[in-house]
Amino acid sequence: MKKITIANIPGDGIGKEVVPAATEVLNTIAAIHGGLKFEFTEFPWSCEYYLEHNQMMPDDGMERLQDFDGIFLGAVGNIKLVPDHVSLWGLLIKIRREFEQVINIRPAKVMKGVKSPLANAKDFDLIIVRENSEGEYSEIGGKIYRGEDELAIQNAVFSRKGTERAMQHAFHLASKRKKRVTSATKSNGITYSMPFWDSVFEDVSKGHPEISTDSQHIDALSAFFVTHPERFDVIVASNLFGDILSDLGAGIMGSIGIAPSANINVNGKYPSMFEPVHGSAPDIVGKGIANPIGQIWTAKMMLDHFGEEELGNTLLDVIESVTGDGFLTADLGGKHSTKEVTDEIINELKKIDKKG
Ligand code: NAD
Ligand code: IPM
Ligand code: MN
């Protein structure tokens, strides 16, 4: 029996609704497989936890997570209780950084039964590789002066190592796909980091002559995401550009509620973390209408990560058969609840089990 230990952190808002849904799906998948078992341990770390303990996780929180095979996170953030920069840097970004989850993989594609808001959407299927450890998300800077001259400075950090690592990962993924990598740049306006980014991209490209490459400024690239998303295969982007592009990717799919992501620790020292692209969605929390597909597709990425690609592909096929049958939550124009969509996915999985 292959046992995979997972630390579940539902977090805040709809994280508490979609993580249990996706966990149930994973348990169903494991039962179908027969030789696979997930062992989940839940951690209540969240903004409510902060109110009681004055921190997002206990002092030994990272040690407690370290020995798990993976971390399955919902979403973090409740500005009514804790400022976002405190809650996010105390939990989500802390884990990404300290567990060296330097690559963030965020796919977007046309899904069966899900209407893209693009009137003429061709069949796009792309992956954003987001540099996940540095870039514009730095702690270097400060707020200086008060009064009329008040100003804030935020420095960005681009190391050769971090930049190369993200790019190499993009080339690696592209080599198994349509063999195309697009670099998201802004070297026409940003004078140090982006010309550096471009030169690293040129160097890394030379090592992969079989992959075709191009470089697009992030502003034009954003427009192309809307006009011609089918032209892209793998896009490599800095931390902030990748963040924004991945919500745009979610948007052109039809909803931010279906987009998955994986924060990968590439050196194998620490667990990787799997979480949907969306946040805690305070506007719909408690209504039972959160789309569980972002979290369930994220579970598919976790299956892939643990070498269970066949199960992962089966899960994505089932998700699409369910969306194809019209089981959609309100964000996709449907009337179905979180539970109805989840139950339908579980029912379809069980049918495959009976057939197979
Ligand atoms: P959000 O993703 O939470 O919500 C944006 C919009 O998308 C809302 O209208 C929401 O209802 C909708 N939405 C999101 N997920 C959905 C789902 N599964 N089903 C249906 N609709 C869904 O982004 P926001 O409003 O900018 O942020 C809310 C909070 O979440 C903030 O505190 C923010 O910092 C945090 N956040 C956390 C993460 C994370 O933990 N990974 C990511 C993004 C935002
Ligand atoms: C994401 C989120 C986070 C990020 C926020 C909540 C800090 O938007 O995972 O995409 O910017 O990385
Ligand atoms: Mn984001």
Automatic annotation (TrEMBL):
Protein family according to the UniProt entry: Belongs to the isocitrate and isopropylmalate dehydrogenases family.
Domain Isopropylmalate dehydrogenase-like: 5-345
PROSITE patterns assigned to the protein according to its UniProt record, in alphabetical order: IDH_IMDH (PS00470)
PANTHER family in the record: D-MALATE DEHYDROGENASE [DECARBOXYLATING] (PTHR43275:SF1)
EC numbers on record: 1.1.1.83
Signal peptide stretch: none
Protein name: D-malate dehydrogenase (decarboxylating)
Native organism: Oceanobacillus sojae
NCBIfam families to which the protein is assigned, alphabetical: PRK08194.1, TTC
Source species taxonomy: Bacteria, Bacillati, Bacillota, Bacilli, Bacillales
